[in-house]
Batch of 2 targets.
Target 1
Amino acid sequence: MADKLYLIRVDMERFIGPATLREVRDAYRRMEFGLQDEIASSNKPWVAFDDLERINRIYPELANLIKKEMLSGWGSTEPESKVGSQSESPESKVRKSKGLFLKLGFVIMGVLLAGVLELLFKDYKWQDISHMVQDTAYARAIFYFGDKYNAKFESHMDRNQKSISKSLKKRGKAAYWLPYVRAVAFSRDGTWKGVSQKKLRGKDAANAPQDCSLAAWKNRWSNSQDKWKPFLDGKILPSEDWARLLVWDENWVKQRTINDQWKWPLNYYAACMRMARKALRKTVKLEDSIEAKIFDSRLKWAISFVNDEEYGNEFEMFGGLWSLSCIESTVDSEEINKCLENKGFSKSWKDLLDRRVKLRRARIILANYSKLSESNLKNLKSSIEKIVLKDPFIKFDYREELKFFQLLIQRGGDQESLEKMFREKKAPLKFEY
Amino acid sequence: MRIVVYGNTNIGRVRKNNQDSIYVSSEHGLVVVADGIGGRKGGEIASSMAVNGMKNAYLSCESLRHEEVSPFLIKSIDSVNKAIINHGKNNADLEGMATTLNCILYVGEKAYICHLGDSRTYLYYQGQMWQLTFDHNIENYVERGWLPDETLMNNPKPGALVRALGLAEECDVDIYEINLRPGEILLTCSDGLTGMVSDHEIRKMIRANTSQLHKLPNILIEAANRNGGVDNITVAISGVLKD
């Protein structure tokens, strides 16, 4: 039987859940709702958290959580437990050493405060903390965002839209607001009023389309429909953004998700894929177009891959896109050839698949062995010999990858220590194969 | 994630006409259910104006961003409310016509539910069910302290509506937002169902038919009719499916 689930009604405007008791507690800790909001379990009445009498009667299992977590914090009317015993000590005993106790008290409080601050801000740089102190809206954005994008964060950003847009024009402030603005923009239509598409993209994604807004993708999909079938059949590989995006190297994208300028999606490429898929679904009815359905599957697969999410066992694809996804999913070098069974590909398609196969073979070796044997090193060497510095079609730059492969060969195959060294040098790769 | 929507309306076993109206579209992600207020002459017309008004407003709108949904709903409902009031004023025999409204817009992975009156929307998930909307009737208002206790004593019908389309020039609509997940089912219905079938029974029927959602509206309508069918019955079922 499924766990007992609860639904929370926030501000009589939105719902959180259905959630388990533990998830309710976690949502409260993330400040997603407050004492004045209401909760209900299946076919039971809505009760406000602060209506303790009804909570005790209808949801006794919640009473403990409310007393421990919710009433012990701000706004509590419950008596707080007493800390320390100075006030209870007989006056005669403490009078002489009052000054000493006070000093000791300040020291203890200072240490405690430092500990609390350390705990609260351990994930932030001093620079972040300084921004948080100067800009309370920014501090709230960080706290509301928490671990992931959520409605409270989104409404906070909306409420502060004007001042944020103003901040984005100032050099010092733009950098720290941008990750949060990007999160909101790409959860909607890929735009933020007052911010150019170029700024939303950033400098480190120059080989991706400058405009990845929903509107731009709708245009791309609408204007390319006559080319979809020959593209899928492997007859043409048009030099257009939609075709490039569909054959992007997801592994390359996934490697570049260590980026403090992006909270969510993980980077600009992931954001573009998301917008492209959303626009495709708004432009074409998937039931009416087999091509659109295949594109949608490919994008869904690519997005899942980049986000490390489950996709399922089979791709709903065919042609070149099936081959590409198949190559990237294969974990055994011997199996790769099975991904290339279609014989009717044009030369440009064949070249693209060939480049991707070489990369995949190298990645498979890295994925399977943390320390490479002689024969592995030999195979790696032959795989990387023909890897190009920059892919001529998708324009992705493979210099970082090649540097890593070559150093690995030079150092006799000790992948672990090399990864460590690259990480210490803050290489922009994630090293996940 | 995709949404499938099914719906039906039935006159019931007692009434002479069906004052409920419904529009559902899986393609557009839209559900509109309206229940013309019983006893009023123009209930049928009011509910049909509400459904067509919402449908036309939504279909003529190219696309909606999340932040645009609430303003869109408020504006559309306001204009439908005015149209109903004006139509009533211009036709003496229709004056005072009114209707409830429950409307769901599916935008991305969210549902926006707008609500006036006592038609309801429920959420069903993993054998459990919640009433999402709040009935705008005297009984509930008194219970919440929004109306004085004497209102109940002075009014013989505790279920009389406080808010509905066509009742007043100022139209205050509830708009709820909920994130969807595969496996969830939303039931939108007129009080012809909830007055005849208990929430517990409804939940059981949904649980038994999660794999044949297309049959659920008729199954629930039949149950209401079996229990008396004293009012018109309208049921819309929205299923949230995995892609």
Target 2
Amino acid sequence: MDAATISRPAVAEIWSWLGEIPDPEIPVISLVDLGIIRDVTWADDLLEVTVTPTYSGCPATGVINFEIERSLREHGIEKLVLKRQLSPAWTTAWISAEGRAKLRDYGIAPPVEGTAACAGALRPLEVSCPRCGSLRTERISQFGSTPCKAHFRCTDCLEPFDYFKSI
Amino acid sequence: MNAPASSSVVSSAVAEFALRKGDNCLILGHRNSEWCGHAPALEEDIALANTALDLIGQTQLWLGLACEAEGKGRTPDEVAFLRDVSGYRNLLLVEQPNGDFGRTLMRQYLFDAWHLPLLKALMGSADRRIVEIAEKASKEVAYHLERSADLVVRLGDGTAESHARMQAAVDFLWPYTGEMFLADALDEELAAAGLAPEPGSLKAAWQEHVTRTFAEATLKAPEKSFAQKGGRRGVHSEHLGYILAEMQFLQRAYPGANW
């Protein structure tokens, strides 16, 4: 049998499989929602999946690569390679609209523009509380439970919450 | 000079440059990680650990580039865990002991205020690999600088006790800042090739940030000082050996050990 034609599922189908892999730290959103899958291409019978890191030192990176490989192998892909792409650097602007809604439902305020790592000066943030929707919130700490999140508190409902930082 | 020789000279310059950048991130990342479980407040404990994580991640990128440019088949782990003190190329500033929380923060601030303009300048490097790492790292370092500057102001312009501790931190660390802006032959070669900025060209941006932050923090930079130097040619303070003893113990006692 010709190995090159035996099993080359369509790229769109592979994207849909990747869209079912949850982020290891925020399992309500998928790797595709997160915007870290940059490219899926066939090179003959070799599948190349290009992934970009969220943060340089994100400990989930290893798990993410492992999960991608495991999922694709379960779908019958035998020859695959994961490529790391740094540039253009990942930005939270790539988190899908669906991903943002899922983050909010999960209790994590999705990223808004205008924080330290974005172009331009620091501006006051309008982070709305994912529980009660109030805009009267305050930052407790620049860094939350993971590098990608900051720690906030709602001054109306008084609940603390995670804010997914904008980079 | 023929083309292959020239490109190998450039490769070795890039390798040495990446080693310097990686070692700064590695040693400061290690220092910050020493606070894990010991910081004065839970939020700060987490912030220090997250900053350390970013820096260790950046270390992997820089040392990865150093190994690639060097072309000897070494891995970033080998470079990190199997070199002795004289092989390290970090600034003396980052290896200074943590001291109290104030000194740790001041060290971070003085470094961040240099690190961010450096990375921004490196985004214009002639080497695409340097540009990519700088682009990635600068987003993280923008957050480091925002936090460290904010805390320097809050503690400098805080209580009499916190002010005194922050001023003592400035006085202690200041002599280690001059090294950031000194150029050696490698720096001149890198600048001439458009690979990295002249170290001295970063001084104005750093000075401006520090002056503004110190004014708000009611802190004073020493009027007269001297620059401790030697880190980039492998001449270190006694402290680095202790860091390496802890950091490298496992790989030296159990060579090749893996998770």
